[in-house]
Please model this.
Amino acid sequence: MLSRPFTKFERFFLLVLTLALLGLVYYRFIHLPVRERVTEADTTLIEEQIATEYTRAELIQSMKDEVTENQETMIGLVATYDNFKAEAAFLNTIFVPLAETYNYGFETPVAEDNTVRRDINISFTAADYRICRKIIQMVHDSRYRSMIKNVNITAVDNRSTDEYSSVLNSPVKCNMTVTFYETLIGAQTTAGLVMDDSKKKSEYIGLGKADFSNLERNSLETIAESIAAEQG
Model:
């Protein structure tokens, strides 16, 4: 058997051949499978994000449609001005136990003829979309006449996990405006009101000259209660 040491060229050639074979094995059995899995994972993540955003848009649009529909069929009692304390207390019964955080922004109430509009800008966070929806529904079901508008819902970015944040799997932040309606008929004061151009403070109409023809039944009940209290 012929045996001799390899020349420098042969050793170099074998080294290059070995490295090439190792590189080929690495590329075929490690690099390509890993790259394929990463590509598939990226594609899956993008598809999940698209599906989540689509579902989010549907949920928010559904809620906005409900709010719009409910605006056309407002319920609740039209309280006599000034009903601010009762309305604020009502909101607290909802947001204190259910919201993670909340903030009220009170605007000056505006009177037009005998109708008073009191806008309250509310921002809050909820643990999830379900609780957010419950809060909005409870506000809508207020015993006091009100309207919800300018609803905006977004997911709170959850940095504690790598999961994509959406309204479906994250805390939710909501901004909205709630308008409470009150009446000046039977009111004891107009303090704190901004009077619309169509009605100045000096033109305030008392019960004796008030027009009751356009009031709904719950408003008349409020007036009757006020008169009874005065006479009692």
The chain is about 45% helix and 20% strand. Residues 114 and 231 are 23 Å apart (CA to CA).
